[in-house]
Every structure is written in structure tokens, then in C-alpha cells.
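Can anyone check this?
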Amino acid sequence: MAGQGDDDVKVLGTAASMFAIRVRMALHVNGVSYEYLEQDLFHKGELLLASNPVRKAVPVLIHAGRPVCESLAIVEYVDEVWAGAASLLPADPYDRAVARFWAAYIDDKAVPTWIGIMRAATEEDRAESLAGALAAVAPLEDAFAQCSSGKAFFAGDSIGYLDLVLGCNLFWIEALRHMFGITVIDAGRTPRLAAWAERFVETEAAKKAAPPMESMLEEAGKLRAMWAAAAAPAAK
């Protein structure tokens, strides 16, 4: 029910985690107050390890002392516990199944491609990863047309489940543009999706959860250094 227990909500995340951003946006959309606890994933603290002992990763939502892990599960939990005037997920069972399908597609197929862009050690590898990213994004143009029914967002007139699932990635996509001068959501290839992205980042939920670009670039630098160090022995 709306308003249930929203006085004891914590989010464990990092400023640059797209999945933590997803959770924070869901809470903002549903008007839930929460305490945000920034985590250092290079030196993980006791609360994170105790709250998510299996994955040892963010995000974690802690509600009334009980942890909920994995961003898609958390978003659905938020939607069920603090349902607002309209659910984040579509009301129709078929539309809800379609939204869950595309959410899984985004996390399983699209997200790894922009991580691949950032992880690439050479320009050739990066170009190959970018090609993969563009191919992964292409079906989302038609998915947007199907789900939005010609309206502003995947969910219609206001943002919903799929908007949050894809929208949390826009900050990393922008960071890739800063880092490498590349465009993943290209208005020439996917004009409707590009227009949606421009609208989404101007929503109140996106602005409240948006990380500073400096944090994104700093996190990217740490990750690239870690990947390079891990690959070094194999290169000898």
C-alpha cells in the first residue's frame, strides 16, 4: 500500500551505478523518502556484505531492516509496496509481460555492449563494441513505438517501468560520449528513442537521481585501470 513503512528505507549504491540510479528513480517516482548510503565497491563495507552476501553488489534496498537485492526486483518491490496513482508496470498482463521481456533484453543484451565500449583496450575493439551496441539498441526503437502507443514515454504520458530500466543507462551513455566521442542512441538511426531520451533526462525523477559527470568519469577510470591490470598477466 502507498506510504507503508517509508520512514525506514535505505539504498546502498554508488553514484555511478546505473542499477542504483534505477532504484533511486523508482523511489522518487513513487514519492518515497529514503536514506542513501554511498558504497565503495573497491573496499566493500560490512553492511553491504551482510545485506547482499551472494552477489556482494549494489544496489540493495533495505526496508524496515530487510534487504531486497537486484534492481529489477527492487523496482517491482517499490511498485508493490508504495504504489502511487498508477503502477510503474502496465496494468494489462500481456503489456506487463512485454515490459518484463524488454527489461531483461536491456540488461542482458544492451548493457554489456556499452560496458564493452568502456572496457575495450584498442580503438578496433571499441569500434566493434560500438557496432554491437548500435545493433542492440536498434530493436528498442520498435519496442518504444509498441509500448508507448505514440505517447511521450514507454509507459505513455508519464514514466514507468521500462522508462526507468533503460533511462538509468543514459548517464553512462553520456559518459561514453565524453570519454570517446561516440553516440550510442543515434537520432539518425533511432529517432524516436533519441527523442525519448531527451525527454526522459528532463523528468524530475531523472534529475534527482542524476550522478555528477565527474563521478561517472572517475568511476570509469577506476574500472578501466582494474580491467587493464587484470588483463596484464595474460598479455605476457
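Reply from J.R.: I decoded it. Residues 24 and 203 are 13 Å apart (CA to CA).
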